[in-house]
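Illustration: Mitochondrial uncoupling protein 4.
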Amino acid sequence: MPPVPPQKELPNYVDSIWCAYSVSVLAAWNSEFVTYPLDLVKTRLQIQGEIANKKDAKLVKAPHRGMFRTTLGIIREEGVPKLWQGVSAALFRHMIYSGTRIVSYITFKERVFKKSKKDVFPIWQSAICGVSAGAFAQFIASPTDLLKVQLQMEGKRRLMGLPPRVTGLYDAFNKIVKTSGYRGLWKGSIPNVQRAALVNLGDLTTYDTAKRFILRNTSLEDNHFCHLLASACAGLVAATLGTPADVVKTRVMNQPLDENGRGVIYKGSIDCLVSTIKNEGAIALYKGFFPIWLRMAPWSLTFWISYEEILKTLGAKQF
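Result:
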């Protein structure tokens, strides 16, 4: 019998970049849907007290509420389904943002930087990877964040007797392009990118560093409990670093535009930062911190456990 030719080794698709991209999007969708109401409440809290807004004076005069009163108010005045208003834009955002940030971090880590020895990755290199991956991913996905913020505020506008600005995702997209052109889709992108860089410094870098530290210095294995501890650290650091930039981003994106497509309240992110501190004090930069942290902790936990478990099920190497 003739010798059997050696079979070609099939490519390992589960360890490919596209597999990591797809898995990260699925994990992010799961986390986003579960924790989205907290993001909506956070946005409402950050817009509350925006005394510079003269055009929408009724919004300015709205009573101040805390996190729990805001949540109950949405349920009573708008209905439970409104807690997920704008979730379509959020899920669309993660199709771009989450996949890009994970793939970018992995690429920077494995191809730009090299580990000095097994399972050791210097924190300064991890920080550069996290900041770069977050900034790059958010710049690409910034238009979807703009659409999400505008959709999230529509319920409150209607309650205040103001006419709706947009009726849905597609309508919001068309009106922004018509008013400001395609460049208008990147309104608020600078504070958005700054926030994403800080959040991913907290999330990606902290999770990666904390997980490696736990595995090296404890008897814990690479399991759910290890992922829980690392993601809890990641959520707290991400919320602490990202909240001020998140407040600025939300206010810049939510402001109305003039006929030339320019913001009528703030000239830019620096002007928004200065105005917020001047009018409301520096503490206003941490408006919505509690719901942000409450959201980031379970979001990070849900995302990383989902991500790692899907990779494990597929037989791919874990993060």
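Reading the tokens back as a structure: Residues 17-47 form the longest helix (31 residues).
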